[in-house]
Amino acid sequence: MKYKSGYKYQLVENEYFHGDVLPIKPLVDTEYIALDDNGDLTIRSGYSWDGASGPAIQSVDSMRASLIHDAYYQLIRQGYVDISYREKADSAYRRICIEDGMPHPRAQAHYLALRMFGATAAMAESEPVVLEAP
To answer: Mind listing the pLDDT tens digit of every residue in the chain (134 residues)?
Structure first.
């Protein structure tokens, strides 16, 4: 059996988002994520993610933002999106949190934490490895 650990949530229907993060090539289309050169992001049903990281409190006003942010960081780690888009991914997180009802000061605190501590999560070495059981 092969598996990956570290996930808390699984998407049950496709999620669509238009943003400023762009792929290196005109279209990225993986099993669970698609991103085109217009900034249209599709995250497909079945995608798993871990929600807001660190000391952030999981809440409904951060769920969509954490989904989209995790997908962006995954594309950066896998080399489909240049690391220079990390700030745009972090800004998208803040914007979505506010759209979804998070108070501005809390969204700003999340954003600042991403800016200060998120770089490691965007590195290729942070991509979850495949584990094996018996």
So the answer is: 988 888 999 999 999 999 999 999 999 999 999 999 999 999 999 999 999 887 777 899 999 999 999 999 999 999 999 999 999 999 999 999 999 999 999 999 999 999 999 899 899 988 888 889 98
Domains held by the chain: number:
1
Asked if residue 40 is part of any domain, the answer here is: yes
Give the angle 112-7-76 at the CA atoms, nearest 5°: 55
What number of other Cβ atoms are within 10 A of residue 74's Cβ?
A: 22
Amino acid at 111: Y
